[in-house]
Amino acid sequence: MLVARVLVGVTGGIAAYKACELVRLLVKSGHDVMPLITPSAEHFVRARTFFALARRAAGDDPYPHLTQADLLVIAPATANTLAKLAHGLADNLVTEAALAHRGPVLAAPAMNPRMWAHPATRANVETLRERGVDIVGPGEGDTGEGEWGIGRMAEPEEIFRRCRELLGETDTLRGRRVLVTAGGTREPLDSVRFLGNRSSGRMGVALAEEARKRGADVTLLAANLSVPPPHGIEVVETPTAQAMLDAVRAHADADLVLMAAAVADYRPRNELQDKRAKDGDVWQVTLEPTTDILRELGSRRENGQVLVGFAADHGEQGLARAREKRVSKGVDLVVFNDVSRGDIGFDAPENEVVLLGAESEQRIDRAPKDRIAAAIVEKAEELLRERA
After folding, report:
1. Catalytic positions, written as ranges
2. What's the confidence (pLDDT) of residue 303?
3. What is the pTM of this model?
């Protein structure tokens, strides 16, 4: 990976504290970071904090806004800053840098939801987009003053991911083999009926697409998807738990395995070969357990493979079970989502998850599943780098 010089402009909003993590992520990935801190931003976070994270001495450059760089990131970008950028005003280091910079610009807006919805702000954002400024976020959630709505700054991990894309670092998984399972298996009862679940496969498909964007050689094991698979990857149809097991065993040497599919825990012991006619009698079905694919992978993996499991469960008790699952099944990371909520998870375009690792837990706030997928793959990629 080539080292890039990145200007990080921080303006005066409560979300300025999140920019600390963005600087840390950029530095950790090997980039040369120059913080540009406005006086308003220092009401929230001192400039010396950013310089310490950037591993620079404060004030070592008399013209930091004129630094030639590969990328300018402004996070947070307040409504006032967006207006200044749209009209070419230059009254602080960040807006001066924006006029002098020649290269991609990424802005992460953050403000009160009513300010974000105002026609003036919308017009300024459109002006900036027309000039080629890349906008990431804002997202929906609680804002600093306690209101709920769209205006919350994108999370540092999402901004960092977009930085990498703008810097041409989309091949960070090149040479890696990634196996993704998606959808929900269906276990036949007779020739027309089955036991199944509500999984659409959206999460797994988003994970496969994200890994493909990063240059990985991706195989998707697809169990009854209700969404189309991504282009440019190998797709293996695995409609039942047994078919999924067979395919996983055939591709178990992948560098990264993302087990997002909802695989049946039980199947009918006796499958009828034709349709059972309705006759008014009670139909008693005996179920037998299927092979625990995740546990098998956890017990046999080697050569630094990273294994990510998923847990769809209910509330705090489900979260506790997900923590136990990570340990008992020998996986590196478990992605927990609360399916007791109807607005996220199964067959929904958005999700909200908790990444459960051996040393830390990270909550990813509600967002479209492609953003959730990016955060999951980013964490898995970090584990791969640590193994290497």
Report:
1. 197
2. 75
3. 0.62
